[in-house]
Task: structure prediction
Amino acid sequence: MEGYVDDSALFAVSGHADAAHLTVVGLGAQQHRGEAAAALAVSDGHVVRFRRGTGAMRDVIPPVAFDGLPGTLAIGQVWGRPAPRPTADQDLDRGGIAFAHTSLGPLAVAVAGRFTNGARLRRQLLAEGAVLHGGSDAEVLLHLVARSGMHTFVNRVVDAAWRVEGAYTVLLAGEDRIVALRDPAGFRPLVLGRLGDAALLATEDSALGAAGAEVRREIAPGEMAILHGRRVETVTPFPKGPSSRCLMEHLSAAGEGATVFTRDVHGARLSLGEKLARAHPCAEADVVVGLQGPGEAVAVGYARVARLPYDRDLPSVVADRTVALVAPALVTGHPLRRAVRAIFEAGARGVHVRCASPVARAMCAYGMRPTTADEILAADTDVEIASWLGAHSFRSLQLDELQALLGDEGGEGLCAACLTGVRPIEVEEPDDQLPLF
Result:
């Protein structure tokens, strides 16, 4: 796979006797968004039980653990990209659910994405005497809620949420209710579903389906949902602003069976491939193959318009043929470079790379990470890129073509900061240096 992938996925259940099990199932269906660690908080109305660990969800919370996690309310999160030597940014302490006992009772907080003013908020909390154990935004939000002067749980969450900025979805769980929030620009998806009378929330709607739930609707940008038992109430505490939905959701982050930002992901990838074939045909090609993962659906669309056979990237398929290799995105280039080399080693006469988006120009500042740990490819021309990949040619869709297909009317409403370097929300860089005196 080549592209940016979300570093976290969320799931929540309220009003179901099997809340822990449903949450584990829902998170397992979103494991492609975070594979390094997982956490779960479950409440029976009086006690909140918390589990956290490294690895896949099924390893952190195996089925034998469910008996020790009774309750009708649960939130969970998977996060992180596995790496042989995690960097500071990949440190597991920077992600996951934060949990503490407060004056409101036990409180668990999960944040997917990033608070762009998180560094400033951490400095303010430290100056006020707070003790911070890690670098996670969830811990920051937990402190803001606990320190709010408001009297009710929901009002404290609203008060705290007014202080944060960025690209995020949030789950907060108390003893008897869950509060969910999507940022005002709507960078990331959050979807509401029902299983009988129980209410569920997930990053991807396909995770709701995996848990047996019926999808009801997407939580709107800036909307807050309060789940209390089987009741769901919503409020919109923030003024409406410009939309900045992450375009990488459709290119590489979302699962193939998901509907994201009300658009079918598989259908969007087919359409991208069709558009790519019209813009950049490959007359020399005998067969079309897709880069493993989201690239396969894009390749099917490309082959359909090009009237070429589509097949899997196998030695028997590419031997003695010229190949059009289709990818959804190009960030680091390493997965594509390896694929080009493997196709030539299998006996192909030539390889032409076609990409459904422009080359990434910047690292994502909002919580998305490349699917490999390498830096982004620093190449400016199609000739440079083709040479580095080892391919005969390289062509890609332009940003306006991509926006026209995935954006609102007029191509608006998308965050393309990784492709342009222009950020819709600026990010305050952390200051990790401690004063000596």
About this structure: Residues 104 and 152 are 8 Å apart (CA to CA).
